Amino acid sequence: MFKQLILLCALSMPLLSCAADAPFSGGITTDVLLSDYDKFNEQYKAFTPTAQDIALMQKLEGKELIVLFGTWCHDSEREVPRLIKLLDESKVQLASIEYVAVGYNKQDDAGIAKAHDLQYTPTFIVKQNGKELVRVIEKPTGSLAQDLTKGL
């Protein structure tokens, strides 16, 4: 019995170390994201939006925005800081914005990623009155501002 207990403990050790390395999952603010994640902060500082992109962001006035991303994801490290900078520079007034970080399994405890059928990170979803209007997945085909406002 003692040998089985020792074996069980030994086999559990890798699981504990993996759990400690799991990425953050859940709602997060831009302040925390930019202060606690160096790559996000570096990309934020390096990105300079064009005047055209800043003007395009005004089309998001009064819309809801959901940002699903991974703190571990290189596309998220590039695109999410660009979005934050675009929002900061344009000063557009959104109805709401929600930043949701997901784990490697692309899920969060609140089920927001699952409810929005998250497949790839990052995914930006523009809504109005709960209805999805625009979805930008991984990286934009044009600029992020162009893709976020396409058809609005």
From TrEMBL:
The keyword Signal applies. It comes from the Bacteria. Keywords: Signal. InterPro entries: Thioredoxin-like_sf, Thioredoxin_domain. Residues 7-152 form the Thioredoxin domain. Gene3D superfamilies: Glutaredoxin (3.40.30.10). Coiled coil: none annotated. Residues 1-19 form the signal peptide. This is Thioredoxin domain-containing protein. It comes from Pseudoalteromonas carrageenovora IAM 12662.
